[in-house]
Amino acid sequence: MLRFSTFYVKNCNITNFRHFEDKKMSLGMIGQKAGMTRIFDATGISVPVTVISVQPNLITQIKTLEKDGYKAIQVSYGSKKESKINKALSGHYKKASVSPGKGLVEFRPTDKEMEGLEVGKSLDLSLFKEGEHVDVTGTTIGKGFQGGVKRHHFKTQDATHGNSLSHRAHGSTGQCQDPGRVFKGKKMAGHLGNIQNTIQNLVIVKILADENAILVKGSIPGHDGSNVIVKPTQKKYMPKKILTDQPETPDNNEKDTKKDSEAKLDTNNPKKEVSNKSTEKKITTPKNDKELSTDNVEK
Questions:
Q1: Regions of the chain where pLDDT drops below 50
Q2: What is the dihedral of CA 100, 103, 107, 113, to 10 degrees?
Q3: What spatial distance separates the first Cα and last Cα of the chain, rounded to whole Å?
Q4: CA 23, CA 3: separation in Å to the nearest integer?
């Protein structure tokens, strides 16, 4: 999404576009990736989940239009020794009467979300609900210097037919004398990973309030222990819980349904018993006649 500001210069309106990541202003939390596991729903289907440990975040500053030029909420996460923080940060934390944290993150929530928020107040997991969809932002795992095959999924060259020492080479990178250079943005070997990435529209499977943890369906970027930002998603969705109460055993259900169906048949159709008896008599009478006929023949 683009934000812009328009100003007037010599009978001409000039618009300055600025790009920013948050398309939807929302309040989120900062947590740490604990790892991946799986849980089973009521039907026995395995659901892969990522465990995010989310300790309470503290509000250190509330920015306003008058002072800062935009509305935002600054949040600190984790804890850190005062001896490992410079004087500027220590003074910032003391002004908010908050213990020093590992870092600071800003959110731009709506006016409704900013109501009731004060400096020094803590944010907990009550911001989220089970079945809600969230966006998780983290730093991907660094892979170091990698070739074109692994970095950009290039195809390899022939393994045989006279090819040697060029099996995983990326091939030509440009033209000859004109233009005599490699264009910017050319896909080549280089550093892979260690960049900020956001996975959108992930479902919160379960919230463990006692353990300060969230179970999110699917994988998220980063290694175990890395910091991640969790905030409501930008996508439209219908909230639906994945984990529900366990249903009754199928044996009991079948027995109950059979009993109910038999009782309904007895009450609704009392003449069925008579019809069944008459059919039995009709079926047995010809057998008796045949037996009598055979006896007469023998005589």
A1: 1-24, 248, 272-285, 287-288, 290, 292-299
A2: -30
A3: 106
A4: 10
DSSP 96: T
pLDDT, one tens digit per residue, over 77-135 is 999 999 999 999 999 999 999 999 999 999 999 888 888 899 999 999 999 999 999 99
Task: Cite the DSSP H helix spans in the chain.
Answer: 65-68, 87-95, 111-114, 148-152, 250-268, 272-298
Q: What are phi and psi of 52, to 5 degrees?
A: -115, 120
Backbone angles phi, psi at 129, to 5 degrees: -135, 155
User: Among 64, 155, 67, which Cα is nearest to 108's?
Assistant: 64
> Whole-angstrom Cα distance, residue 259 to residue 5?
73
Query: Which tokens belong to 292?
Result: 């009598």
For 50, phi then psi, to 5°, come to -110, 130
Token pair for 138: 């983290």
Q: Based on the number of CB atoms within 10 Å of its own CB, is 157 exposed (0-12), middle (13-18) or buried (19 or more)?
A: middle
Helix H or strand E encompassing 288: helix 272-298
> How, if at all, do strands 213-217 and 46-53 pair?
antiparallel
